[in-house]
Amino acid sequence: MSDDKPFRLLPRVDDTNEFFWTGGKENELRFLRCQTCGYYVHPPSPICPKDLSKDLAPEAVSGRATVHSLTVNHQPWIPGYDVPYVIAIVTIEEQDDVRLMTNIVGCAPGDVHVGMAVEVTFDEHDDVWLPLFKPRGTT
Amino acid sequence: MSERAAVISGIGQSDVGRRLYRNPLELTIDAALASIDDAGLTREDIDGIATYPGSMDTPPGFSGAGTVEVQDALRLNLDWYNGGIENPGQLGSVITACAAIGVGYANHILCFRTVWEGSAQGEKGRASVTMGGRSGGGFRAGGFMQWSLPFGAPSAANWIAMCAQRHFHEYGTTREQLAQIALNARKNAALNPKAIYRDPMTMDDYLNVRLITTPFCLYDCDVPADGSTAFIVSRADAAADLPNAVQVEAIGSAIHGRPSWDQWDDLTTMALRDAAAMMWKRTELTPADVDVAELYDGFSFITLAWLEALGFCKKGEGGPFIEGGRNIARDGEIPLNTHGGQLSAGRLHGYGFLHEACVQLRGEGGERQVAGNPEVGVAAAGGGPLGGCLLLTRR
């Protein structure tokens, strides 16, 4: 980790979640998808909750999402995280019951609103690519 | 057979304080012995024990004792015991005890919840609780925390704040409305000698204090404390010999959605929706019959969500319902958190609400007693994917 990058606590990568946390390496936001009914399963599970198929495989989605709710965090819970920052729950475009907790970056905290169109941008730390989201259409 | 086979025959509480720096097992024993005595029993009568969350080392001060330590300290001879965190909220332990009474596993069950978060966190406050940080070494988050910690969202304050923000978005709820939960709690705490914060709080105080995680300011978050609360849950058919017994009328423990803080279908209701609906299905009583409501306020919005879930107002109308504070005042439509809640009386983590419901139904509230001899009370605890509630009646 280079010192100029903001510090991040990282997830523990294992066989069940590696496709998700490393998808950013190929610039892909990936979820497990049922190969028989097409349902996206998140968080990862060995079985599709719709048709109980165990035939699941990671697939890339568009990376487009909508802000379902948000909070501007002012409390310095974790040393190294500079406040304030926006925590949001976003819903992916492909399926409205797949949500991610994330950060909205690339705009002022006060500009983030429920219903805002956002797209994924990856934040690389060690062996993990954290999916963050930015206003759609910005660079 | 139903939960009406159970009564709460005794209640007890240790000293309560912001930081007592006392052995949490000792606090637990104080509460336990007080509740046994209050029931008119002796420890030889206790044949069951239940607690939330059971013994655990982290977060600091979250658990003051498990069933094992208490059983051994008091040398109890038990026919049934249960301690665990995967329950319908903190009061899930009491709900489970009611079931054990109903099927006859035990006659008199000691239920307790002990926290010492105030002392354990020390002068650094809640900041001391969060793991890791730049100096945190090789820590990696697993389970649910992998989905929240990397994004700087380690606290239920963040997760519940997003539930509140969604409610604000859908229904136009405002901070000035939400403030009434905190202001009402403080007003009631002024009349509770054991409450931690008793000085008056104004709307200006509320709006000007520092933000924690929007829309929550400091006063939307409960105050870490030390203290233990205990109940004796007994067989209703033995209640003739139990002078202080309060009747359990119905319980709610349901969770029909996904058990998750962020994947839950409707963030504005959380799991409280299902627990409350189940409770009303199990009784002939209705929300209009309730005289006093003691509803969890780990964060202020949770109380608003319980008010809606329990039907004291319609879904989405919690903001206007509490606006101005009149409906929820001690002499209002539905007296709420009459001891000051966890926001002002201290974070006794769920058990404080059931304790206060019993106090009110027994007419022992002293200065803060609700007028008119309340006959029906509801106690509810939990937020997010955790929720459990009990409807109680005066015998």
Your description of this structure?
The complex is a heterodimer of chains A (139) and B (395). By secondary structure, chain A is mainly β. Chain A has one domain (18-135). Chain A has one helix at 18-22; strands spanning 10-11, 29-34, 40-41, 56-61, 64-73, 85-92, 99-103, 117-125, 128-135. Chain A has a 5-stranded antiparallel β-sheet, with no helix packed on it. Chain A has a 3-stranded antiparallel β-sheet with strand order 3-2-4, with no helix packed on it. In chain A, strand 8 and strand 9 form a beta hairpin. The longest helix of chain A has 5 residues, at 18-22. Chain A is globular. The two termini of chain A are 24 Å apart. The model of chain A has no long low-confidence stretch (mean pLDDT 95). By secondary structure, chain B is an alpha/beta fold. In chain B, helix 6 (175-189) packs across helix 9 and helix 8 (272-281) runs parallel beside helix 9 (300-309). Chain B starts with 5 loop residues before the first strand and ends with a strand. Chain B has one domain (3-120, 223-394): 3-Layer(aba) Sandwich (Peroxisomal Thiolase, Chain A, domain 1). Chain B has a 9-stranded mixed β-sheet with strand order 3-2-4-8-1-9-12-11-10, sandwiched between helices. A two-stranded antiparallel ribbon of chain B has the order 6-7. Chain B has 12 helices and 12 strands. In chain B, 30% of the residues lie in helices and 17% in strands. The relative contact order of chain B is 0.19. The A-B interface holds A 7-13, 17, 42-43, 68-81, 85, 87-89, 97, 99-103, 114-115, 128, 130, 132 and B 126-127, 130-136, 139-142, 146-155, 157-158, 161-163, 165-166, 169, 210-216, 262-263, 265, 267.
